[in-house]
Amino acid sequence: MILWNDRLVPRSEAKVDIEDRGYQFGDGVYEVIRVYGGRTFYLQEHLLRLEKCAREIGLPLPWDVSQLAERINQLVEANQLREGTVYLQVTRGAAPRNHAFPESVQPVLIAYTSEAPRPVAMLKDGIRTCTLEDIRWLRCDIKSLNLLGAVLAKQEALERGCKEAILVRNGSVTEGSSSNVFIVKNDTLYTHPANNLILHGITRAIILKCAEEAGIPVKEETFSVDSLYNADEVFITGTTVEVCPVTQVDDRKIGSGTPGPLTRRLQQAFDEQIARQCGCSAEMSGL
Ligand code: PSZ
Question: How far is CA 256 from CA 37, 206, 248, in A?
Answer without folding.
Answer: 35, 27, 10
